[in-house]
Fold:
Amino acid sequence: MVKRSRAAVLPNNIILLQNLVKRDPESYHEEFLQQYSHYESLRDIFLLNGMDTTTTTATTTVSGSTNETTSSVSTTNSLSEGSTTQLMELIGFVSQVCSCFPRETANFPAELKQLILEHHVSLPFELKEKILTSLTILRNKSVISAEELIQTLFPLLVAYSNQGNSLGVNSHAKELRTLVYKNVVSLMRSCNVGSKNQRLNKSTQAICFNLLDEDGDGRGIWAAKLTRELWRRGIWDDSRTVEIMTQAALHDDVKVALSGIMFFLDADREREENFEENSDDDNDGIDVESLKHKLQVNKKSGKRGKKLENAIKTVKKKNKNMNNNGTPNGYLNFSAIHLLRDPQGFAEKLFKGHLSGKKSNKFDIEQKISIMQLLSRLIGTHKLMVLGIYTFFLKYLTPKQRDVTRIMSAAAQACHDMVPPEVLTVMVRKIADEFVSDGVASEVAAAGLNTIREICSRAPLAIDETLLQDLVEYKGSKAKGVNMAAKSLISLYREVAPEMLKKKDRGKTASLELQSLNKDGNDKRSRRPQYGVENNVQGIQGIELLVKWKREQQEAAGGENDDDDDNDANWEVAENSGSDSESDDDDNGWVAVESDKEYDVDMDDDDDEDGTKKGNGKDEEEDSDLDLESEDEEKERKGKDNISVDFDSEAAFRELASTRILTPADFAKLKELRTEESVSKIMGVDNSSNRKKILGKNEELVDAATLTGPVKYKQTREERIQQAMEGREGREKFGSRRGKRENAHSTTNREKARKKNYVMMIHKRSVRGKQKMSLRDKQKVLRAHITKQKKGK
Amino acid sequence: MTKSRKQKQKKQDFLKQKLKVGKTKPKASNLTDTSFVSRTISIRNQHLEHDNDLSKKLTLLKHHNSTVRKETLGLFQKSLPKIINSKLISPLVTQSIPLICDDSRDVREGLISLIKEIGKLEPQVLRLHCKVFVLYINMAMTHIITQIQNDSTKFLQCLLEDCQEEIIRQAWVKMMNGLFCVLGWGAIGNNISAGVAQSKKRNAPTLKIHLDTLYELIKSGCLEIEDNTEEEAQLEGDDRNSHHITRNQHLIPDYPQPYDYLKLFARELKNKDATDSLLQSGNLAAQDVDTRQRIFEEQYLKTLEKELDLLVKDGGVCGRSANNIKQLLTTISA
Structure:
């Protein structure tokens, strides 16, 4: 019944018919066929119109009147305008109901594709737009596959990025390009929701490769743009994508090359920003309270508490950075630079093609700096050898160079410990000569010193002893930036190679270590970094902490439980004692010392510090190995400490990794322990294994802005006023309330009386009487007036 | 005296001019006088003469107001004898053809009368534009608005009078399909309720016109054309009539666009199954009578007989027309 009544409705517009057909395709089959043939005839008319223009011109040229030609052309054009809307309606209609009649409309998608690919020059913009959206609808209804759609869209993109087409009068090239581009991106996104559509991705990437290969204006840029966009959205994240961008970066065209370079420089940041918006901020899971409790600082003074807070803050910041670069879980954190297939080849080609060759003139300085940054980052991350770049930098390392800080940061990043020190020494020497001298401004000197520090933190051998000692002399500079930079250089070399510093600069811990080494009779040079000796972190960072913690836990438990773990632990102990006679003793002793130290720190922290200072002072004065007894003891403990920790880091991994599988909970604990350790290191509680981390910072970026250090310029008057006004914000209630009304009211009699004419008032008795008042009364009145004024109102 | 006047003049510059109520504002001292005086005034002649250029009226065929369109058609119809042999006729026809699908009934009727007029004066013009006519008539036949659909057969009738040969040769199958569509005799229309709705569209007078047109179409398509007149004319003009049949085959045919089926200059979308499209459009296949007859028997005869029986039973004007067609069928099959 329902069907019948619905069928009785006679549709008289397309939209209604579309609705009806969708609900009941069977009944409206006839109507659909009718409309389909209507579409066909309209399409034929449309095609004929294009022909008409040519034929009419031909006939009229025969008749020989030019005037007639123009008029006939214009008429045919306007003629097509009327039917365009109809055709658009019908195309929309057919594509909507296409899935209901697959047999009848088998040719429809192919026709649309042909129309837009072959006749896109003559079609009006609206129609092209409609065809594109209809094709997308067909894709969504899975009438055509995504590959087919992509193969239709890309030629259009290429066609409309050409100069010739885009200059046409009503071609709407820009709109069309954005439309097609948006379609491609949304298509790729919708196809990669859930699981990746590898086939589509591969074919699209192949198209991108081809676009980059062909020499055509404005073709490569689309490939680069699309790839960047998809990378940013996390749709493409494999090495093929990166390979496309390496091609783009090495492209001859400046625009394309720059797009590729910027991809490598910014892509990761962009992507992280994109995802940071999505993910919530969850404090990195550091339990501040438990840390506080463990360090037992809550009994002590506020200063110490503040110090802890600061320490935690910095650790958090570090962790955040580490998380962004480091953890290999999750596909997001593989940066583009890590996914490179042939970093060495890429870097060499980049250097030869864009920087050193004759073609380098096509880039301006800004672009060249970008290339330098990319190159240096590549070199730093993968420890590549591009020796030419260091001499290339020499040319730009002068204080007058524009954006020199960015070049300096690039130069610093390009250093790593596998570069021959001779090459780097030249650069360091140049920086020292150009930047660090008495005649230059303080921020220039600071920038120079900071750059040298950054270089040396990556390649400690890049500087020789005398130059270092010269530079260190700037620690006495009055300019704060220079002062800080020199001191940071000192602190760096205290960790890396204290022998290179003068004795007075070495500091307590470093000189103690040196002394102990001397005493033990070890080789003096053993701690000094050597060229070609790698000191990588092996295994899992900080695993010895986990082992330690586990043992502590077991000790606490007391071995009463009959757990597997416990058994394991027992077995381990037995093994240890079997293999290493001392280890058991060592272990126990180590734990005892640790608790001792904590106790020390808690109770008389200030005293201890004073003591160390005194010790240092003595060192400087007497220049000998004389020491207090207690310090000696401490040093001995330290030595033991170091040994035990060293043993642990190697053996612990073997032990733990071979006996059990680390669970996520274990990793969480590991993370917590590491933060704890770094906190305590900053606070000066225990610094046993600083050294290892210093050399592993190749991937960290050098921020160009911080190289100059804090620069303080004199404020202008406006700035000063603004600052003063800022300080007064929100303090209105403390100011005078004179002349301010709390709530609106008319003038009081009192206020009126005040404004009254003087001459009128002077004869009043109340005024005249004032003169006759006694001195005492006058005084009273005056006093009352003053207090009232002070109170306000 | 002089001194004081001078002083006054000097002071005058720095005094503030006082504005007074009811008086005009004094002019500024740096004012430029733009008024001028002349002895005579010349005005260009007003263009009262009406332009007789009809080509400028062509655009009115696309005017948004239907009365304007209708009146323009009437105007052209009046002036047809003048322009029939001018170069204006071609744009006129191309521009008026789209009005087949016009929304207004009056405009369509005006167009029909215009076409008839043209056919009377010079049928060659219609023959030349036959292809476009066929396209638009086909479009009208499938139009969603019923009135336009119903009127489409009238146009077909007109054309069948004047350029029968062309239409039959170019688009006989197409037109047959279209007519069946208009009549609602679709090949797959098995749904009864939809059929009911379809038949509602047609009342007796329009149905009669449809049937008459169908009669004409079938008759012209499937019966041998008795081109006696032509033969006679050729007999008179040509003495060597014994050769003319053989010779004629090698001459360029005398109808327009004879090699159209080669599609040398046509822009068409390629289909996957090319053979099907060839049969559908019937450009090549339906050019001679035998093929047409075969197609007729294969495709249309069955439904035609079934539907005609129903119509004859109903009787009335339509029944009579249907009877005519039935008789025609017997002659064809015979």
User: Anything to note?
Assistant: The mean pLDDT of chain A is 74. The CA atoms of residues 252 and 785 of chain A lie 87 Å apart. The domain at 382-516 of chain A is CATH 1.25.10 (Leucine-rich Repeat Variant).
